Model the fold of this input.
Amino acid sequence: MRHSEAGTRDGLARNDVPQIAAALLDRLRARSPRVHCITNAVAQNFTANVLLASGAVPSMTLSVEEIGAFVAGADALLVNLGTFDRERREATGIAVKAAVRENVPWILDPVFIDRTPSRAAFARALIENAPKAVRLNAAEFAALSGSEPTRGALAAYARATKTAIGLSGETDWVSDGERFAAIANGHALMAKVTAMGCAASALVAACLGVEPDAWRATAAALTIIGVAGELAAAKAEGPGSFAVAILDTLHNLDGPALVARAQVS
Done:
């Protein structure tokens, strides 16, 4: 009976991702979740603006004296390893402890862990603190898990770590070990604007702030930003205007447009 119920939930959840995303977008705007972000120096401004445009409230302090209080009062935490300096490593340790203690959901974005062993080891240690979600690319997944990013490997790693995995690529994959979604939205210009992936992770954090089911939150966030990227690209003349257009699009995006454009299988 338990297997039957899980299978039913899998089918319904996968087919309903556009509706889930639309409902979460409404919830973001109604609740304005507070998202504390530890992210790289290049990404801070754009990440904050994406969160604001989506309806969330960002905070960015790295101060070891106050970050614990900021995280304790937040609805979600983003940990992004893009700038792997001493200040952020120390802040991350305090922030993750506070998140675990206060039951604040958190997401790991293990940027560039495929580049250095020390960064990969730090990310693996962070996984022991039970992030609700991990968003990463194929090279980062291979470095983190020791496996190539197949659908089966994603499911196995998600089950082993009890987390939702959002794998970004030409088609985004989301798995929690039971459920799987492939999200085919997005546009090539998204790869031409720095911090776009970091902002996507922040949007996952925002969704975690209003949705306890990490698979739903991750799939919804990647659908929202993928659809917004497509709509923004239609108005843009290049990367510069696209960066502005995606903020405007996220601000103006509504449920019907999201459902109509979402490509989820």
Remarks:
- Residues 1-13 have pLDDT under 50 and may be disordered.
- The chain has twelve helices and eight strands.
- The first strand starts at residue 34 and ends at 38.
- The beta strands are 34-38, 57-59, 76-80, 106-109, 133-136, 164-167, 172-175, 180-183.
